[in-house]
Amino acid sequence: MQPSGHVEASTRLLSAMLAERESVPRAALLAQQAAEMVSDGAAVVYMLDSGDPPDVPPVWTSKATAGEISLDDPTVPADSGTLGTLAQEQQPLVLSGAELTREDYAHLHARRTLVSLAYVPIIVNDVLIGALEVASFESAIDSSELRTLVNLAEHAGPGLVSGMLYEDERNALLESVSRLTQLYDLEKVFSSTLEMDELQPLIVSKIREVLDVQAVNLWFVKDEHELLLMRQSGNDPTAAEGSSQRTGEGYIAEVSDSNEPLLIDDDKDERLAKRNASAVEGGPFSVIVCPLVAHEKQVGIIEAINKMDGTPFDDDHLFLLNSISETAAIALTNAGLLQAERKVEILQALVQVSAEITSTLNLDRVLQAVVNHTQAIIAFERAAIALEQRGALQLKAVSGMTQINRADPAISDLQKMLEWASISNEETHVTQHGDQIDDPRPETQAKFAAYFSATGMRAFYALPLIDDQGRLGVLSFESSDPDFLSVAHLEMIKVLAGQATVALRNASLYREVPFINLLEPLLQRKKRFLAVEKWRRGLMIALGAAAGLFLIFCPLPMRVSGEATVAPARTARVQAGVDGVVRNVYVHEGDYVNQGAALAELEDWNYRADVAAAEARYSEAMATMNRALSQNDGTLAGTEQVKVGYFKAELTRARELLDRTTIRAPFNGVVTTPEVQNFVGRRLMHGDTLAELMETSHVTVDVAVPEDDATLLQSGEPASIKLESFPLQTFRGDVTVVSPESEVQAEHRVFIARVNVPNNLPNQEGIRPGMQGHGKVSVGWHPAGYVLFRGTAMWIWTKLWSWFGW
């Protein structure tokens, strides 16, 4: 049976330890209690760290001290001195200070003479977890005091273990929170840009920073059997940017084929040996590799090499990299989509420019189209074309100039530079970064240093225009940005140059057609006319004069016509005014709705709660103000009046937000969104589109009028529309606007006359957007000759002007 003193000491210790949750405060209580149990004593509480990883030797770690004693180093090797003896025997020990040498307890630092030293092992569930070290400076520690210390250690052991378990759990939770925070921050960083050239180095640098590794490699899928190293952060002597790896050549291709993460933590692994075969030093001794997968499609591979602390990777590192890879894959996919969209836009612009170049045989028009319209594809500052004529190169067109002033020094310098570039049959591309001219030849560097200094340009690109008939000329682009041309731009310029060469050759040949081809048919007709009998010639002349008078003085209504396409007069996206989950949808695709009709409702319980809270605050403020007024308390009444105004505005705002939970139609029209009823249960953010609404009371019909007739059109002129869907009906309206810019349709340039047509038919049977037909616009009464032969006369006039050029 334990003595009452032992029980009382243990009870006090346990009561005090229950108030603390961590191991260090609990160890401090144990040390203080143990020091008090020995006359003029001091105590140290140690915890035994068994070593993690296993190859690290175990040590005693000081958790708390009490009394006139201290430690120079908080950690002591487990087999050192008196603590080593305790670790071996795991039994309470009492040692006399006279029998001990200073080396036996070298870990302790005490200024007084040590009389006695006691050690009590702290054992929980038959496992040694720590030790209690008690020093006495006046008298030897007797057996009674030793039993008390043993009793304290037995009762304190579970408390110390639970404290360490609590700390481990807390640290694990903090580590999880920290990791989630890192992942959230990485997601924000990766989502901060959609530029592929900016995103790739950002991904590898951030992953290297988070994992604290020697290098991070980003591999992209080049084709089905090959991976290409696109970006690298850090130092990896076994692979450089631009290197590739095919199926069967290494573990990168293995991960790509299996689509599963890979951890290699053994530096003797044969896959690492194969990787390090060509490296001098610093090669990988531990790697983690994860595939980048987004929307079930592999984008690439991310590889981390060698932890900076020299230890191998473990499953936690692989899990972290795999989590980061998901975010990185989505970011790379989005950037790739943007890159693809830009390529599509550039290709569309290239198609439009090509159509413009090949749509005419007018040489000047082709020249102007090449130097001006190509700016939709390339961000140049000056483009020019020079053509070879009679053995000399002549500057024919410069972007932004309708006429070339050859006396201008800038034009003269450009002419000389094009003559120099035309000597070679290869492309010329010279840039200047800082003071450095990017060309190996000194004479070229000197030439362009002077040219760039005079013009302010920093890049010059010239491409010869050559076909199977020989050299036609040279095309050049200039910019103050030395990097204004990418690889894609250079490829497109070559395509454009080929099309321009064909168009310029055709236009040149067309211009050189002999004029005799037009005169010969006229001379033959004259001979046949003179051979006719005299009275017949007179009759023919009279009929011709009558026809001439008819064409000059008889007015006819004139109309210009073109293909017609129906477009809605107005469409609108009906959007959510507040955030919320769609509770009900009251319409379907094709439903006709009136202005203000409810299309859908959002869950509004939180907004109703806000209204109720605002009404309560407003009512309370009103009551307080009225009470202050009734008590003639002007100060309080003024203060509450301000609150009433504020809460009234707050209530108005809350009611407005509540009203916005009902999404209404902005005008009369038809719902065009398919499956709009499936929005039920979906969360909409403020500004998200619920449905599209199309007005049907009237429509706009786009009539494509040929370019030659565009000058006759004016707003307000009447028009007639015949649609293929209504062959027996004619719809009438007025021209509202004529497009200020032409567009290409079926290799011809047209202007769009927009006609406003009332839709008087029932909604289900009325005019619908997308219908096609033919439209005619009345442009007034004109002489018959003008109406009948205007187009022919304009064509002849254009040809004569192009031939003679006055």
Explained architecture:
This protein has 5 domains: 4-170, Beta-Lactamase; 192-341, GAF domain (Beta-Lactamase, 2-Layer Sandwich); 366-511, 2-Layer Sandwich (Beta-Lactamase), CATH 3.30.450.40; 606-660; 697-804, Beta Barrel (Elongation Factor Tu (Ef-tu), domain 3). It has 17 helices and 35 strands. Helix 8 (315-358) runs parallel beside helix 12 (487-511) and helix 14 (534-553) packs across helix 17 (784-804). The longest helix has 48 residues, at 143-190. The N and C termini lie far apart (130 Å).
Number of domains: 5
Largest sheet: 6 strands, antiparallel
- For the record, the CATH class of the largest domain is Alpha Beta
Helix content: 40-55%
Helix and strand topology:
Layout: H1 4-18, H2 23-37, E1 41-49, E2 59-66, E3 70-71, E4 75-77, H3 81-89, E5 93-96, E6 108-109, E7 116-124, E8 127-136, H4 143-190, H5 196-211, E9 213-223, E10 226-234, E11 244-246, H6 251-258, E12 262-264, H7 270-275, E13 287-294, E14 297-307, H8 315-358, H9 363-373, E15 382-389, E16 392-398, H10 409-421, E17 428-433, E18 436-437, H11 442-455, E19 459-467, E20 470-479, H12 487-511, H13 516-530, H14 534-553, E21 555-568, E22 571-575, E23 580-585, E24 592-593, E25 598-602, H15 605-630, H16 634-660, E26 662-664, E27 669-671, E28 683-684, E29 689-694, E30 698-706, E31 718-723, E32 731-738, E33 743-745, E34 748-758, E35 772-783, H17 784-804
Antiparallel strand pairs: 1-2, 1-8, 2-4, 3-6, 5-7, 7-8, 9-10, 9-14, 10-11, 12-13, 13-14, 15-16, 15-20, 17-18, 17-19, 19-20, 21-30, 21-35, 22-29, 23-25, 23-28, 24-27, 25-26, 27-29, 30-34, 31-32, 31-35, 32-34, 33-34
Helix pairs in contact: 1-2, 1-4, 2-4, 4-5, 4-8, 5-8, 8-9, 8-12, 9-12, 14-17, 15-16
